[in-house]
Write a structure and sequence with these properties.
The chain is of the alpha+beta class and 357 residues long. It is 17% helix and 37% strand. The protein starts with 8 loop residues before the first helix and ends in a 5-residue tail after the last strand. About 1% of the residues have low confidence.
Length: 357
Amino acid sequence: MAKATTITMDELLENEDATLKQITQGETIEGRVLSVRKHEILIDLGPQGVGLVPRREAGYSKALNEGDEVVASVVDTELENGYSLLSLRKAAKDKGWDLLADKLESGEIIEVSPYDANRGGLLVEYDGVRGFLPVSQLSAEHYPRVGSNDKDEILQRLNSLIGQKMNVRILDADRKANKLIFSEKEAVKEGLVARFEKLAVGDSVKGVATGIVDYGIFVNVEGIEGLVHISEISWERVNNPSDYVKVGQTIDAKIIAIDKDRLSLSMKQLKEDPWLSEVDQFKAGDSVEGTVTRITPFGAFVQISPAVEALVHVSELGGGDGVDPEKVFTLNERKSFVVLGVEKDNRKISLGLPKSK
């Protein structure tokens, strides 16, 4: 008969301790929901005891029911009541960082919905991790094109994007620095390349005005940003682009140049140039009347018909180049002039002052 093996009490306790792995602060642990209360959630951790998720995270876990399996992060290994203090949010955040690192590496496009905004951009949370989508990384569709000093309007435009679904790529995900940056521009880049390939200079396109600034109108053409420079809005002189187009308005335009990531557009080139028909009524030696529209150091510009503007060069004022046009002309005054020359190809008409009798 085999001799019985004697096990001491110390050995029994040592073996039991070996099976009960002690939880440590910061580790991630699995458990099962014991109860969901208004002020706390209790988690069964098996041999490691019971964990408590505090009231401040109760709202984060409204969907939990008794018996659900959860993953939590250990904040404190032993409270006064013997429970371990757990955080579901931190565990989700840690798991989220791992997922974000994978998506950064793969370049995967993900869908997000901003939950807040400031003048610098949009605040976004993805898989428990909060990040930022800077204004500079918004697509042409969402970029707030406004005057450089109109910060309130920028914020208003960004606030309108809160809650909207947006496709983005991750630019940076640094867990140690708690830095997460998204880019909508990167997410749409590949699609834009295909769209650019279908466009050519001379094409007529439709677009939506996304912003109006002093120097022109920004237009979204199927996700591609275009600019109608102030000189390409109308054949007549344009002082204020907002007199011609409002934000949100659909416009027709002609592509006059294609840059790397932007279209140069013209609204006026889709219409007949009235200058070409009106200029035919003028020839050298004609006496004309006109209104002074601009005064510069090199002369004065004069409107002699609705579409035709001519120049009185400083050399025609007498006294050589040292004469000051501002002492000869008054803005908006109407005067008589003589046509000195017409250069139709160069869109240029030269005027002089009538000779005194």
